[in-house]
Amino acid sequence: MPLKSFREAINETLKQEMRRDSRVIVMGEDVVGGMGGSSGVPEAAGGTFGVTAGLAAEFGRRRVIDTPITESAIIGAAGGAALTGLRPVAELMFIDFIGVCLDQILNQQAKFRYMFGGKCTVPVTIRTLMGAGLGAGPQHSQSLHALLTSIPGIKVAVPSNAADAKGLLATAIRDDDPVIFCEHKFLYGETCEVPDGEYLIPFGEANVTRRGNHVTVVAFSRMVLLANRVADKLAKEGISVEVIDPRTTSPLDRDSILESVEKTGRLVIVDEATPMCGMASEIASLAACDALAALKAPVQKVTAPHTPVPATPNLEQDWLPSPEKIEHAIRTTLDQRLARTG
Amino acid sequence: MADQSYDPIMLLDAYRRMRAIRDFEERMRREVQAGTVPGFVHLYCGQEAVAVGTCMHLLDTDYIGSTHRGHGHCIAKGCDIGEMLLEIYCKQGGLCNGKGGSMHIADLRKGMLGANAIVGAAPPIAVGAALTQATLQTGGVTVTFIGDGASNQGTVAESLNMASILKLPLIFLYENNGYAEFTGVSYHLGGNIARRAAGFGMPAETVDGVDFFAVYDAVGRAVGRARSGEGPSAVEAVAMRWYGHFEGDMQLYRDPHEVERLRANADPLVKFEERVIRDFGIAKDELTEIDEEIADLIDDRVAAAKSAPKPPREALFADVYGSY
Lengths: 342, 324
Hints:
The structure holds two protein chains of two kinds.
Chain A: E1 3-5, H1 6-20, E2 24-28, H2 55-59, E3 64-66, H3 71-83, E4 87-92, H4 102-115, E5 125-130, H5 145-149, E6 155-157, H6 162-174, E7 179-184, E8 191-193, E9 207-210, E10 215-219, H7 223-235, E11 241-245, E12 248-250, H8 254-264, E13 267-271, H9 279-290, E14 300-303, H10 313-319, H11 323-335
Parallel strand pairs in A: 2-3, 2-4, 4-5, 5-7, 6-7, 10-11, 10-13, 13-14
Antiparallel strand pairs in A: 1-8, 6-12, 9-11
Chain B: H1 8-33, H2 48-55, E1 63-65, H3 71-76, H4 81-88, H5 122-135, E2 142-147, H6 154-166, E3 170-176, E4 179-180, E5 183-184, H7 185-188, H8 193-198, E6 204-208, H9 212-227, E7 233-238, H10 258-265, H11 268-279, H12 284-307
Parallel strand pairs in B: 1-2, 2-3, 3-7, 6-7
Antiparallel strand pairs in B: 4-5
């Protein structure tokens, strides 16, 4: 199977889905890139990160639409277009910008189907960029997938590799519900084997990226890469780590997580996000509610602290979960045990 | 076209819709006061000519985006009054199966994209509907109703700009009814609504929203431009609302005589009736017949809505997702 980068996989999926279904359109800031510029080269960029390169050339500007920097109108129009027969893929350049268009997701798209009595579909996909590490500072670095996961009516995908990006994006575009598709900016250059043809991954099915018996690590998005690396290192010491990548946070594959915790009795959750009301808390709560008897040690959460993301490179590295922090959490849970009474 | 002929059949249809809105809203007012209606209702009396003068130009394949004050838009766009009442009473068989209520009535079969309880939220959605029409080249148009209060929201400016640069078949139909909730337009609005819209490079005009013919003519011009690919337009229709922001609003911010003056001097139905009898040879009896028919219809449908079954408990969990 050919090696492709995360960026290439998304680009290829957009093209394949646009060829397959003429109702699929792509819209957002600079998705064509360079409209109205003095060079006269409209497709100079093909997206801020080059992800939509070549789309306008193949599908035309009726289906690949550069928009002004007006996120409420972009996301709102995508919802309205979805309600009336298109299958829009809207790009929200950075997930941080959700602050200026959240109403269209929270109060509109998420609720259309329910408040209209099930008499509509809302097949909109919102691709957006998450993650810290570029020194881009507090407003271009956040990971807000948990915020969106908390909204009924929305689905949220957090792919961790190029193949999953392809399979989950194709599923998102064909899905009749609103999907937020979170692309970690540090994953764009990561490569893996990706099928050439049609490839669909169902939502709500976790991928077990490492099999193990001693401890369960649940990780999201780029954190899966770090968790895999730590698992491989500890395997050499005879520590057997199971790494679970839920791939979508809504729907969440609770069964796979619980099954693993039942087996290992120890749970570490790694999420590049702030800790309160986040995915780490959600999964810790899942274990406490549904697998407490199986737990041999307190659950360990490896998250960012309850602070904004600093622009300062050294502080940003401290903010981020790291392989060292993950390893420490694994060793801690292996050294601990729950004091039980009765 | 200002010189279009006003077909008597169209005029009687317009009257029927305006009369239905008036009677529907007056009845809702009494029912709210009697405590039979759940939640909030925002009444449209005084503005009937705006919704009807607009929607007389539209087909089921054309879309409208609405507001929290949406009953009039629904009726004007052809939504079934019985199903609307079932929805307002949150009953089974309502347009949204009873889970939307007054502020979320939608009927996609009729091109009604939903009343919307978030002020200023509909215009971006309407941009999307117009984008669908342009992309699929359906020949359809979309109208988004915008209150004077919503006119100040950033979403409206974003939508005006997006519609303008993409040349979408979209009409921004501003309803200046004098108040944004409890705050008068003389206080909350800087500049002028129509001139703001014109600043985005589209034709914009202000008309008397009490006058069906003024609205009908202006919207006719805008719809004509939209259907022929000339892009968006804006119409500001000025028509004061007769009642509060919501029914039950004490309206302490209003001169107590203001509504009396409106009823006496600015009743869209009276104005319409005088004109059609004088200029178009319609007999008073024809209108009275419609009045009676509408009164019976509303009595019947309100009674049916009150006695209809509530949604079953399982409905709580239904239709969050298509699949999950």
